Amino acid sequence: MSGTLTWSSNGEKTASISITVSTNKKPYIELDYKYNDEPRKYKVRLVTIPSNLGKGKVWYFLCPQTHKRCRKLYSIGGYFLHREAFKGCMYDSQTKSKKWRQMDRVYGSYFELDNLYEELYSKHFKTHYNGRPTNRYSKPPNLIEIL
Questions:
Q1: DSSP-derived 3-state class of residue 54
Q2: SS3 for 18?
Q3: Which of 19, 64, 94, 138 has the fewest CB atoms within 10 Å, i.e. the most exposed one?
């Protein structure tokens, strides 16, 4: 099975990646793309473990660098790898100053309503699925009624 993902901005193609998946004896996913005009093409092995529900199996990537199982690959520096393969990467909150974090602790709850409003009215937020409210939509019902 194969396909191509394409990204565009203002109607102009900015990037694309071709993906080929094989689930035969040695399952893998092959990634083919360009990073800074340098072609990259490599395979990432796939492994399975039995589901804890007793039915079926759960698929994982096997990082080509760390050889760790993961459900998500991260791209920093042009390769898709396990998050532990990248040294020195930080969450956004880790780069904030101590003063900013203190202010966020004190006044953060005041901005929570604004954040909820942005989430509710974001482009791809789903309020209902199959005729029923989604969990994300139902989670804070008292705040949703305010909006």
A1: coil
A2: strand
A3: 94
- 75 token code pair: 């791209």
**Chain-centre distance of CA 141, in angstroms?**
26
For 67, list phi and psi in degrees, rounded to 5: 60, 30
Residue 81 pLDDT: 92
Would the pTM of this model clear 0.90, i.e. be above it?
A: no
Tokens 């093409």 belong to 41
Are 29 and 43 within 8 A, CB to CB? Answer: yes
CB-neighbour burial class of residue 81 (10 A; exposed 0-12, middle 13-18, buried 19+): buried
Q: What distances in angstroms separate CA 104 from CA 99, 107, 118, one per listed residue? A: 9, 5, 18
Mean pLDDT within 2-21: 90
Judge whether 143 and 114 are in contact, CB under 8 Å.
Answer: no
**pLDDT mean over 38-58:** 93
* Residue 27: half-sphere exposure toward Cβ, Cα within 13 Å: 11
Q: Max alpha carbon distance in the chain (Å)?
A: 55
